[in-house]
Specification:
Length: 251
């Protein structure tokens, strides 16, 4: 028994600069197979993965995302919450499954399935020496992404992932996470506000020092400031409407 996988996970950081070197078909296949090996709720396998190789489609997705590495990477995956095949089964059996995959629980099951698949693929890619970055920015315009990828009803794009060999100048480093005893609760949730606030304050100092060191003082915001800036912005308020249009989250 070794700490190899643990050590690999601890090294994780988002890579946003890649060499202009496409992944081989064999590598792509292995990554997808690794994803399929993830746990799936009740064997439902409520996901699909779209490998985007067409430069024109990449450019269109870049317009939605605004991120250059949607195009400049070794390979681009888009992860889809997918009940389309389940709906096809529904049309041929003497049961009514529609309520299940149109429900809030159905949305949670599908989203969890997709997350597990993607993390398996991310870990496999990093084990192969590649870097990855998740692309939640594809949800900037879900309707447009559905059009670009020709998604049917009951299929919803959750996020993308760019994979590739890190560029020579790529010098990312893992960001400090919240202290273990702040996120790991034994038996019951510790909601002591005083203890929580003290832990956040200490973590704010850690994050601020991390940014100062990484940027030579050009950046020094705290974690709380980042969280406040992000969550105070009313972004992607069309999400429920787009989910409904895809046949999801109706109940």
């Amino acid at each position: 028994m070794t700490d190899y996988v643990y050590d690999l996970m601890k090294k994780h950081h988002s890579v946003r600069q890649f060499k202009d070197k496409p992944l081989s078909d064999d590598t792509v296949r292995k990554l997808v197979e690794a994803g399929q090996s993830a746990s799936t709720s009740s064997y439902l396998q409520t996901y699909s993965i779209i490998g985007v190789e067409d430069p024109n489609i990449k450019e269109q997705l870049k317009e939605v995302s605004g991120q250059p590495y949607v195009v400049d990477n070794g390979y681009l995956f888009v992860f889809v919450l997918d009940y389309y095949r389940h709906n096809l089964i529904n049309e041929t059996v003497d049961f009514d499954m529609q309520t299940s995959f149109e429900s809030a629980e159905g949305l949670l099951v599908g989203a969890i399935d997709v997350a597990l698949v993607s993390e398996n693929m991310a870990l496999a890619a990093e084990d192969m020496g590649y870097g990855i970055v998740y692309l939640g920015s594809l949800r900037n315009d879900v309707g447009r992404v559905k059009e670009i990828l020709d998604l049917p009803e009951y299929a919803f794009p959750l996020f993308g992932m760019a994979v590739g060999e890190p560029a020579e100048g790529e010098n990312g480093a893992p960001k400090p996470r919240l202290p273990l005893d702040h996120v790991f609760h034994k038996n019951v949730y510790n909601s002591n506000a005083k203890e929580q606030r003290e832990a956040i304050q200490k973590y704010d100092e850690t994050v601020s020092n991390y940014y100062k060191e990484r940027t030579n003082g050009k950046r020094q915001e705290t974690w709380s400031e980042q969280v406040a800036g992000f969550l105070s912005g009313k972004t992607r308020l069309d999400m429920l409407e787009e989910l409904n249009k895809s046949g999801l989250m109706k109940k």
